[in-house]
Specification:
Helix content is 62%, strand content 0%. By secondary structure, the chain is mainly alpha-helical. The protein has a domain of 74 residues.
Length: 109
């Protein structure tokens, strides 16, 4: 069996390091088999978490780009709500146009 070895040094004057040492020394050998296996499993979990975060961040960024592209052609005009001409109701034509734009946006998915 070939092995790759790596050494890890802990600073005994660092409270975080000593807490890790204490935890590693108190591991249940039946559950985790060995400190070595526990550390390997912990590293695998950290890698999987980091890759998932990267994947989620990329997905979120793509969604933002799509949303920006779709919304860039939409104009928004806000009336002064204190004015008497302020009307919250849309005309039938505006409702149909909004519905068509919403459906076109959803077709992208």
């Amino acid at each position: 069996m070939s092995e790759y070895r790596i050494n890890v040094r802990f600073n005994l004057s660092d409270t975080e390091h000593t807490a890790i040492i204490d935890y590693l020394n108190s591991l249940d050998k039946e559950k985790y088999k060995s400190r070595n296996q526990f550390i390997i499993d912990a590293i695998k979990s950290a890698i999987a978490y980091a890759e998932k975060q990267t994947s989620d961040d990329e997905l979120l960024e793509k969604f933002r780009e799509i949303l920006k592209e779709e919304l860039c052609g939409i104009s928004v005009a806000v009336s002064d709500p204190s004015s008497e001409s302020f009307n919250m109701e849309l005309t039938e034509e505006e409702k149909l146009k909004n519905d068509a734009e919403a459906l076109a946006f959803l077709d992208m998915f």
